[in-house]
């Protein structure tokens, strides 16, 4: 990036956009941005617009866009370099050389070269942070972008004539910080990092306030962003709502003694002050978002509607999205949970609000299709379907969730899975609802405090076991154990104590099942919970716990697994099975409840596992050799239990022997759990490393390996 001469040299994610529609959607958005009144940001957006035009083959529009930048700023190095690139694309080499010559002259002789070069780098920083699509893997771009802004700000410090441009770049840096700050995992896993980021944001906002005109757009944006971050504080989890009291949190030291000190617990005054300076779209959006958080739905809708009045184009999709979100939450809060299925009988008429929300969300998914927007669209359709009674709209609700899951990182969006599960449950699809809720738990960020998904899942297992059945206890125990490894212990314990007091028998059976192979942390957790509910425990309860902890769990070995005869193999090589899984019996639950679900139920492979498919009457050795002979691939689930198992090592060595005999490359696929040491005889094979959950990218690699 240091050597980039123009935008076309930058590692922008437009180069990996999946299709033309994604780029065209961003062009629509940028057309709204290029009319802003902050000149450095307006020109930075024009560069992006010209770039995107070029990538979809609209070379004349690309040329005109870069040319319009030169009309405003004749010494703009990026415009000259980008124009030269476009001219070569249309084979106008003489004109390209002309622009390169002008660029060289500007670089050599310009009086204000420091500002020109800083602006050149700042425009690259802005482009680097621009999103063609949303991806958690792209967070590094925001850090790299801010590093570039820092260099620009350092180069231009101390020069009064550069203050306006510097303030604009500071605001861009704050926007990058905001995206990083709002990533829930960062706040809940690394609070110290977020506190440092918060202090940096406060410093930048104070500098902007100091160096720009008090009636400028940048001044209004500074006030609005003070309001936003005074609302958020350094430590607010994203799922908190307006009833949560966040006042009293220690004030950052760089705010103390400044004019802003009195506003730290009063975000509303910051937003009002910003609106008095300039009625700007971003100011209205930030104010409306705070009002939504405070559940003041009507006032929030008014703010977003005013933003839409200022710009009713598709480029203002964010205001449409937030207005629709307000209307949807207003409708949901107006109907009691047990009335949602029979919404038509409710005393509250929500039809008009729902139809406007639906119209807004349909615009949003057209312009910016994300898992987030499809999730809300699905919720709208569900309410309009009157609890699934209208089958046509019910189908649209389910289709919206599927489209959300198909978006980039959609399958990793735990809250999308959570809402999809709720939708399926309301429509009576209990089995599929449970599977979707399991995906929510599976994809939660470590140390999360959002426990509604595991709480709901346990409630559904309690329903399944209300007749005294223990058939589903091992499955429930598997997901409870996974949740324990992910959720913040204090929050998880609070949830468990609340639930155990309502259904003690279920949880004692659950704990008994977990106790058999609990690690020290889980065993200590269970002991602490049992101590806290000593007043509820009778002798019969303790007997139930001890009885559950002595069972082997083998009675549930194959009941929950789709029978192999119901499936057809996907491979085209004539094998009866797509894969045979080699694993330790101690890891049986993960294979049954996670891996097999992904491969057999979702991806329609036909697998072979010993607990279900080994034939009685044959020796174990005969079954192993037959399984390997009739399976296209062999998956080895390598854990500490695997390496200690003589049978697992024998099966693995038999599979390798077959692969060498038949010279079949790629027939063995190792999956390694965490930091498990791979046996020497497998060390030359590449493996997929997981931490209890197969990440979506690695799952795709596994699917590809099975299909090859």
UniProtKB/TrEMBL annotation:
UniProt keyword annotations, A-Z: TPR repeat
KW rRNA processing (keyword) present: no
TPR repeat intervals: 43-76
GO biological process: signal transduction
Domain called TIR: residue spans: 575-708
Name under which the protein is recorded: TIR domain-containing protein
């Amino acid at each position: 990036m240091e050597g980039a001469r123009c935008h076309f040299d930058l590692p922008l994610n437009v180069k990996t956009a999946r299709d033309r529609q994604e780029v065209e959607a961003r062009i629509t958005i940028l057309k709204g941005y290029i009319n802003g009144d902050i000149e450095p940001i307006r020109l930075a957006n024009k560069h992006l617009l010209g770039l995107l035009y070029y990538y979809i083959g609209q070379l004349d529009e690309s040329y005109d866009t870069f040319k319009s930048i030169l009309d405003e700023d004749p010494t703009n190095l990026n415009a000259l370099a980008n124009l030269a690139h476009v001219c070569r694309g249309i084979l106008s080499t003489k004109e390209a050389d002309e622009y390169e010559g002008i660029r060289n002259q500007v670089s050599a002789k310009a009086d204000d070269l420091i500002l020109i070069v800083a602006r050149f780098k700042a425009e690259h920083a802005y482009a680097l942070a621009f999103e063609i699509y949303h991806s958690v893997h792209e967070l590094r771009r925001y850090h790299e972008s801010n590093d570039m802004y820092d260099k620009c700000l350092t180069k231009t410090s101390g020069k009064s004539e550069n203050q306006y441009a510097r303030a604009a770049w500071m605001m861009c840096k704050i926007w990058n910080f905001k995206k990083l700050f709002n990533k829930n995992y960062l706040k809940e896993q690394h609070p110290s990092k977020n506190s440092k980021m918060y202090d940096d944001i406060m410093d930048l906002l104070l500098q902007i306030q100091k160096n720009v005109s008090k009636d400028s757009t940048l001044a209004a944006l500074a006030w609005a962003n003070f309001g936003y971050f005074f609302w958020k504080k350094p430590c607010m989890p994203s799922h908190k709502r307006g009833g949560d009291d966040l006042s009293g949190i220690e004030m950052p030291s760089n705010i103390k003694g400044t004019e802003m000190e009195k506003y730290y617990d009063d975000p509303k005054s910051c937003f009002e002050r910003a609106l008095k300076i300039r009625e700007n779209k971003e100011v209205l959006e930030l104010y409306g978002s705070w009002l939504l958080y405070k559940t003041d739905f009507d006032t929030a809708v008014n703010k977003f509607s005013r933003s839409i009045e200022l710009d009713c184009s598709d480029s203002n999709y964010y205001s449409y999205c937030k207005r629709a979100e307000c209307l949807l939450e207003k409708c949901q809060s107006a109907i009691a949970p047990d009335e949602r299925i029979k919404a038509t009988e409710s005393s509250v008429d929500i039809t008009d609000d729902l139809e406007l929300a639906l119209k807004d969300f349909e615009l949003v998914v057209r312009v910016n299709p994300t898992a987030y927007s499809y999730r809300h669209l699905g919720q709208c359709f569900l309410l309009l379907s009157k609890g699934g009674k209208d089958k046509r709209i019910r189908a649209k609700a389910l289709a919206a969730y599927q489209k959300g899951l198909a978006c980039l990182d959609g399958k990793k969006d735990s809250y999308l899975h959570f809402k999809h599960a709720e939708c399926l449950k309301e429509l009576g699809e209990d089995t599929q609802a449970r599977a979707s809720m399991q995906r929510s738990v599976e994809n939660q960020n470590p140390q999360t405090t959002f426990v509604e998904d595991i709480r709901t899942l346990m409630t559904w297992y309690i329903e399944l076991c209300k007749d005294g059945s223990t058939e589903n206890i091992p499955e429930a125990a598997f997901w409870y154990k996974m949740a324990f490894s992910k959720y913040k212990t204090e929050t998880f314990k609070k949830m468990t104590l609340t639930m155990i007091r309502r259904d003690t028998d279920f949880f004692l059976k659950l704990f008994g099942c977990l106790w058999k192979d609990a690690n020290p942390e889980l065993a200590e957790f269970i002991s602490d919970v049992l101590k806290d509910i000593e007043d509820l425990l009778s002798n019969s309860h303790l007997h139930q716990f001890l009885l559950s902890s002595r069972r082997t769990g083998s009675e549930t070995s194959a009941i929950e697994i789709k029978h192999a005869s119901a499936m057809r193999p996907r491979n085209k090589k004539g094998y009866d099975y797509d894969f045979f899984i080699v694993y330790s019996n101690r890891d049986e639950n993960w294979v049954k409840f996670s891996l097999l679900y992904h491969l057999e139920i979702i991806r329609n492979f036909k697998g072979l596992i010993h607990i279900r498919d080994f034939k009685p009457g044959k020796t174990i050795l005969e079954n192993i050799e037959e399984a390997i002979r009739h399976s296209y691939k062999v998956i080895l689930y390598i854990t500490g239990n695997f390496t200690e198992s003589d049978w697992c090592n024998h099966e693995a060595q038999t599979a390798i022997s077959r692969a060498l005999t038949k010279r079949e490359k790629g027939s063995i696929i190792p999956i390694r759990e965490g930091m498990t040491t791979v046996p020497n005889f497998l060390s030359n094979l590449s493996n997929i490393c997981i931490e209890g959950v197969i990440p979506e990218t690695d799952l795709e690699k596994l699917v590809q390996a099975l299909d090859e």
